[in-house]
Amino acid sequence: MAANACFQKVSRSTSQDTPKPDRVSQRFPKTARLRQTRDFIRVREHGKSSQSRLVRIGLLRTGGDAPAKVGIITSRRVGCAVIRNKVRRRLREILKSCITQIPAGFLVVIVAKSAAAEAPFEQLKAEWLLLARRLSILPPLE
Question: With a threshold of 0.85, does the pTM exceed it?
């Protein structure tokens, strides 16, 4: 019954305000993804973090010349699978435009909070930019 209620809340897996990649080349590259559990743990234990109402960002500088890697965590507190996937897609879309600006040697973990499920795309993007600038991931606005 609870899973059925989830599908009634969101009729489609994507909303109209979330941009969609139209080609494979526009997807979030696998080389920029944080995929190993030990890297997520390293960022949590040794990195610094900042949070807002919608997301928390963890950051660890590795000191290497490897390109920046980003991982996204959406727990079940965010919502059912459809909602969690929607939030992940939105965060990946936001990151695609910023990944080239993140300096090499950074590991970034983004944890979506439950409020991110109801937030519009623009608000999610604004909070990501605010936290990224607060942690010096992105250059400040001029």
Answer: no
